[in-house]
Structure formats: structure tokens, C-alpha cells
Design a protein that fits this description.
Strand content: 5-15%
Largest sheet: 2 strands, antiparallel
Radius of gyration: 18 Å
Strand order of the largest sheet: 1-2
Structural class: alpha+beta
């Protein structure tokens, strides 16, 4: 991996989409370029859609007339959303680690570490 996100340095970022045959895609840069901004927007949409899907699932679970076909469909969408959320979490975790804010780094964030 390339140097951490420090002024004037580039780093590798896992993008929130896959390439050919499902291979991961990466961008190298300082996080301010066009591809990074598109990735930020895609991540935001993915997380928002996952949250909306959770609300929909809550409604379905309270409905005694939901069919097995409807449940299978929503579970398939949940699988897709969870895959997206996991990729976003992995990407953000990698960026935190390279910036010195991830696990094992000094606690500099607004939340105290859970030790």
C-alpha cells in the first residue's frame, strides 16, 4: 500500500463497486479527485438504500399477510445491501488505518476507545 493520507501523499482506496468478474476496484490519490467524489456519492446512496430497506423489512415483518415470495425477494435485496455496506466499511476501515486513526492508533476521534 502507498503512504497514509497525509498532505501531499497518495493512498489506495477500495471503491464501492466491483470490476470485471467481481474483482475489487481501487483508486490511487489524495481523496479529492473526481473518482473519489463519485465513490463518496455512491457510498452515500448505498448506505441510504440499505437504511430504507431495513425500514421496509421492519414493515414486512409486522405484516402477517407477507408471502414467501415477497420474503425471498427482500432477503435477496438485503444480501445485496449487506454486501455493499460491508465493502463501504472495509474501504473506510482501510482509510482509517492508513491515516493513523484505525485500530491500534491513538484515540483522536470524538468517541473514546472501548477498552
Amino acid at each position: 500500500m502507498i503512504a497514509p493520507n497525509t498532505p501531499g501523499s497518495d493512498s489506495v482506496r477500495l471503491l464501492p463497486w466491483s470490476g470485471v468478474h467481481g474483482n475489487p476496484c481501487y483508486v490511487i490519490g489524495d481523496g479529492t479527485g473526481y473518482v473519489s467524489r463519485v465513490a463518496d456519492n455512491v457510498e452515500s446512496v448505498q448506505l441510504g438504500m440499505a437504511a430504507e430497506l431495513l425500514d421496509h423489512v421492519d414493515d414486512m415483518l409486522g405484516d402477517s399477510e407477507v408471502t414467501s415470495v415477497q420474503l425471498r425477494y427482500v432477503v435477496a435485496r438485503m444480501s445485496e445491501a449487506l454486501r455493499d455496506v460491508c465493502r463501504v466499511a472495509e474501504s473506510r476501515g482501510l482509510r482509517l488505518r492508513t491515516s493513523g486513526q484505525g485500530p491500534g492508533a491513538p484515540d483522536v476521534g470524538p468517541y473514546p476507545s472501548e477498552s
